[in-house]
Amino acid sequence: MNQLYQLNLLTIAILIMVNFLSLASLQGQTCNNDNSVSTTNIGCCDRPQFPNAYFESVVGEVRTIRSNSYPNHDFCYATGRVPAPTYYQFEVDVTPEKAASTSPVVSGNGRPFRYFGIALNGVIMAPAPAEPFIFENTNTGEFNWDWVFEPTNNQGSGQGQVSLDCASAHTGPQGYHYHGNMFSYVETLQAGISTTNTPPAQPLQIGWAADGFPILYRFGPDRNGVMKLLQPSYQLKSGERPGDGISEPCGPYNGKYTRDYEYIVGVGDLDACNGIDGNINIGGQTYTYFYVVTDAFPQISRCLTGTPSETFSRNNGLLVNFTDSDNDGYIAEIDCNDNNATIYPNSTETANNGIDEDCDGMDLVTAIDQDNDGFNADVDCDDTNAAINPDATEIPNNDVDEDCDGVAQMIDMDNDGFNSDVDCDDTNAGINPDAPEIPNNSVDEDCDGVAQVIDMDNDGFNSDVDCDDNNASINPDGVEVADNGIDENCDGMDEVTPNTPVCVVPSQFSVAPIGRRVVQLSWMGTENARYNIQVRFKGVSNWVLNAQLTSNVVTIYGPVTTFEYRVRTLCADGTVSDFSSIQAFTISNNLIAANSRNRPAASITKLVIPSSELSIYPNPVRTTLHLEQSLQKGTKIFVYNTLGKIVLQKRIEKLENTPIIETQSLEAGIYYLTVQEAGQTLTRKFIKG
Prior knowledge:
By secondary structure, this protein is mainly β. 5% of the residues lie in helices and 26% in strands. It has helices at 2-28, 183-189, and strands spanning 54-59, 62-67, 88-93, 98-104, 117-119, 124-125, 134-136, 143-148, 169-172, 175-178, 205-209, 214-217, 219-221, 227-229, 234-236, 261-263, 275-282, 285-293, 303-306, 507-515, 518-524, 530-537, 545-549, 553-557, 561-570, 583-587, 605-608, 616-617, 624-627, 636-641, 646-651, 660-662, 669-677, 680-688. The strands form 10 sheets. The chain has an 8-stranded mixed β-sheet, with no helix packed on it. Strands 20-21-24-27 form a 4-stranded mixed β-sheet, with no helix packed on it. Strand 5 (117-119) and strand 6 (124-125) form a beta hairpin. The longest helix is centred in the N-terminal third of the chain and has 27 residues, at 2-28. The radius of gyration is 39 Å and the shape is flat.
């Protein structure tokens, strides 16, 4: 027994020593992980192009929220991630209560599970990151969901960064959504609220959480009821992460990952879900708990203290079958007139017009009938006198408009049947709108504003409109004879035959494949003209090429797909034709033998359509790596190893249709190919065998 006991002690001692040596070895090794952080967003670069829609309705204990999750403020986006309306319908409790335990916004495997809440402009709050913003095993490429990037500390447009804009938001599969402090949104509610440290007189509500509790911005009452800048209770962990840098990250805790932070009771004002107990009045209702969007981590809470609505589970609230006929952002289900874009919930009501613009079931009536004559002030031209209204009898010649028709009736002084407001001379019974006109007496008898003049040349036009009343062939209906120096039709000029050529719209287009991934376009040209050509991918609205040409022939290099293009003529005299109709061409990967007919001449302009992704072969590669796209002069090519070190680099000195990279010098392993061309950077991983 003693021997067995001694053996066990020896075994334990050996295990302790091995673990100690392993830990010492791990602590002594260099951490090569990228541990950089960035809190600078990509700013604002665009303004809303669609209406913003947000509508609340309460029935019983349920608050229903409908929105199109489209921002009502300036925003920005990464390439191909332009915000667009995405319709949602959520339901929350009107009188929420705290649950026995909190509910996270991520599932047990670390992936985003539900939205935290919705802002009062209808944009959802989704703070948890998703692919590809996860630590990636440097050997296998697998994601380690225990270590997800903290979006607000990995901002930017570079590789591995989250393109958050001036509202800490970007666009994903779920539409435009906030990840953190939504600066540009709150500034539309209260200017300066995102930068001041002085508490406002009243807290600012900016949204509803998935459990029905209100969400405030930065300020609110603390546990003693004092308005202040509320602080979260999270801080960075001390020391270094325990990872080996391969399967999980190493390096000091600096906020790059969400797990770099820990909740410590009492460090700040707020609980683990960035909320606080306290009475807050919203719309006449008192809530005993509220959440806060803060300056520091987590900014937007990652958990809920109440029972979350299932409609906030990822994509549960998304609407797919709806109608918005007038494109005002509000679906027909809640739009009381879906054929009029000025009528929708929350629209501005015009008082006393009999139209319910804001869909609340009634027209806004604001005018008061002060004189009690049955007519409101918006139609009563004197609401202090009951004898004046649209139904009153007009009394002539008193300078008062009793019937509100805009005219004070006057007596017919010359008794010709026409009052002085229409009789141009009410002292002469021979002058009124029905009187016959007497020519050439300089008197306007019929009150039409013109004293009739005799038609001297009897061509049917009086001399007040006939520019030569002594010549019957010259009048406003005369036939113009070009280039004779005479104005026959009295339009103020002689007709001159133009002798300048017309700037003709290009036509008679042709497409000729002249090689692998290259075509030649041509069209009927105009002498001494230049041309403006625009090219885009078929099915896409934006033009990816916009170039000027010196001839009516151009060589196009690009990826294998179908494109559309249009051309206009830039004439030598400075005039510009309309664009031609949109034409199409297809670039294929077929090899066409070059000869004198299909080889592009040196004088023909060559254009390259930029690719949206890299295509390479073979992968894995042994000696030579091929790029399946054309690269223009000045393009830079880099090959990085997994440590981020450049091991190969190349500059394209002239346009190459099928560039190659010699990889014989590389050791076997994983590498990253980066191409920098025309202001964009594309990266593709490959394996050297």
